[in-house]
Amino acid sequence: MDRRKFLKQSSLASSLFFVPSFVKAFEQVASASLGYKRLVIVQLSGGNDGLNTIVPFRNDIYYRERPAIAIPKTEVLKLNDEVGLNPSLTPLKRLYDEGYLSIINNVGYPNPVRSHFRSMDIWQTATDSDKFSQSGWLGRYLDNYGKSPYSAIEVDESLSLAMKGETVNAIATKDPRAFHNLSRDPYFKNIQKHKNDAHLSEHNLGYLYKSMIDAHSSAKYIYETSKTVSTTQEYPKNKFGQQLKTTAKFINSGLDTKVFYTSLNGFDTHANQLNTQKRLLKQYADGIEAFVQDLKANGTFKDTLVLTFSEFGRRVKQNASVGTDHGTANNVFIIGENLKKKGFYNNMANLSNLDDNGDLKFEIDFRTIYATVLDKWLEVDDEKVLNKSFSQLDFI
Amino acid sequence: MKQEDIKHLYWRVGFGILPSELNRLSKKSKKEVVNELFNSSKGITPLKVDTSEIRDAFSEMMGDKLDAKTRMKVQKISRKKQIELNVSWVDRLANSNEILREKMTLFWANHFVCEDNFINYIQKFNNTLRKHALGNFRDFVNAISKEAAMTKYLNTKQNRKTKPNENFARELMELFTLGEGHYTEQDIKESAKAFTGYSHNLRGEFVFRKRAHDYGDKTFFGRTGNFNGEDIVDIILEQKQCATYICEKLYRYFVNETLNKSHVKDMAEVFYKGYDINNLMRFVFMSDWFYDKENIGNKIKSPIEFLVGMKTVVPTNFKKPQQLIYIQRLLGQQLLDPPNVAGWKGGKNWIDSNTIALRLKLPSLLLNNAYISKSLAGQIDAQMDKKKEMFKKTYGKRFSTETDWNYFKARFNDVNIDDIGNYILACPISNEAGAYLNNLEKVSKQEYCVQLMSLPEYQMC
Predict the structure, then answer these.
(1) I want to staple A142 with a disulfide (CB 3.0 to 4.6 A). Which of A168, A289, A331, B259 is the partner?
(2) ipTM summary value
(3) What gap in Å lies between CA B343 and CA B334, rounded to an integer?
(4) Greatest CA separation found in chain A?
């Protein structure tokens, strides 16, 4: 048992055995001063083309299968003798050089599904590809370990399935002021006055009252806590940049939130892929670099881990419209300060060993990444959240 | 029939009831009221949006094969038309005379869950739900299994003798008929073979591809034979569990989220004899237990029930249809866009911090320029007009709705202002909220209606 877990558990024990309050207070301070770790998810929606993101610039098959859309060797941002980044990822290259990036290749799951909705669903619920779930993996984290709805925040207007639990849902807000305004009408405060707490969760109406009270206090808490900080960091002026700016604001203001969820859309590049993907990857990399700088300036980067994924990669062979069709395995990026495995976690896919559709065969189940993050970063029982035991990786 | 019972019935089979209707029905017996409900749902009015643009796009196409350019064009039109279909579905729910059929359609849409990005197929699917909503469950399941949108959604189209795809077979049993744990993996494998060759043509008509079908023997639920898809459905329906599973789901939707085992058992007995949905629902609405106190006003409205309910009291149109879709998304239920084949979980799951905050604020936002009157009893509301005007100026564009308050005024003309709550709310107001409301001036029927709709109680049905 490490020191942190020991402290947490002993403070729980102390509250059970009526240890004098000053001892308890000391332990709480100790636990808080250790800081707590936050997870930021970045979802690249639409199926980012992993092969044109992390480019195998010495691979003949790559150039043979993609005559019109392969990234020329001369343009690739070389990471080593074999592999490099898409030229629009210069900021990500800088993070790589500083040792803040770990690239996990060939991430997928058995019996891959090539439908956006379904595959995104699988990534968000962390179920087998032939099972359906009405709760997401982070929602189940909330069910088991969240202290309040704002323990997890999606920096958007509505919640993804990933953030919905069996009993607890996360909060979605991209604008804490608007969320606060929605609930600040004194009318609502007056109807909940003197509400007898004992009845609040007994039946459905009680549940609504309880949810209302929670929502209004969460909205107030998020708004009033986050407005205390302002940033000088410049962010790209696009939706993703603003999402990250808000996320950094939440983190730097000390908001008691463990998980943040953000997303960047538009990666479904069936036609004329090159420019679209370049533009999106640039948005991604510019945003992420600004985010990392903002956190570093505020001393919060060391306690933040960023996980970037997409619902699937794309077919190795280009299609007839100078784009690519839906594929399978893809790369996942882990960004953080103290990574155990910096740079490449594993080798690139073997392009001469594809499945019947001409897609990559996955090597790492994405749920082993989730399990690792849950256990080693958020320090909770991953099996409880994922409803299954997965072997773990060694990147953090 | 007692007014309380009629109201309860209409909250569940519809979206509430207006004063004149309630008065009219309260002079009738329970049997007459229920008969009228079923009689008025005998007809089937398909929901249709104008898809001539799609037809034109296809007719410009060279040859039979769908080329990339036509595909893109059709997809673009489809996206636009999906919004139209969504909006007209909401209108239909609020305005139809076939109340029960429409509510059942809404129920089945979250049972036989499907989505498709091609408007013709999803519209056809939606009307198949409507057609069978009160019909025979066996015909229903078979019709669904042959819908173009379904063969696409659950990959029956890709299900061939040489390369079986089990997706449809699995969900048929897990979600559509039996429920998890009432079949084996082997049953799935074998029944998948029976559905090989199910496909459709470009017009969305069912096509049985003989060459893709597996004519070999299949062993399913202990029986062996050269079964086809319909045989499999027959064998499934022979299982009493199928009747029980459907009745449980209907009970949760129409009666109570907490099951009463003996009521469900009685329902299943009725349903198992012939799988007639009409008979089953009549049994439910004629039963005494449906009107038990514990079943009244205890359900959390779905977002659609909430939105449509408001619309039946104060007719509202969105000048920009996209805004209605946007609100559905924020509330967590966008029609025609289910989260996955398991559908929306419903009940308490509709509610989280975001949705409850929005639900409480939405009636005033949509109907009353965000204003909820808080003037104390005996005072006039001096701020009202100024505040409403200010909101209109600042946020008017974001909530661009046309509301017909005259409709409300006419319907509630003969209702005493103190009694409005009887029609707006399905459950009693909690003591604390009631005490606060009593302290307030009832400025007008409109303002009082907005106050009532802004209570958590309004979320119940």
Answers:
(1) A168
(2) 0.94
(3) 11
(4) 73
